[in-house]
Amino acid sequence: MTLADREADADPRRAVSVPHRRLTLANSVLGAVIVALDGTVLTIARTA
Asked: Cα separation of 20 and 33, whole Å?
């Protein structure tokens, strides 16, 4: 089966490229880090 055959049979809803998935994952991780740091800063500021 060639790449063209797989693309023809592919579900259009799942046609997300690998770089797009990696970018989405990286942004999700970055967002989680920002939220964690924000919570840490607020906790330290409240106790000071």
From this structure: 20
Q: What is the pLDDT of residue 46?
A: 87
Coil, strand or helix at 48: coil
Q: State residue 15 phi and psi, 5-degree precision.
A: -85, 50
Instruction: Assign 26 a pLDDT band (cuts: 50, 70, 90).
Output: very high
Token pair for 32: 């989680």
**C-beta neighbour count of 42 within 10 angstroms:** 10
Task: Write the DSSP string, the chain.
Answer: --HHHHHHHS-GGG---HHHHHHHHHHHHHHHHHHHHHHHHHHHHHH-
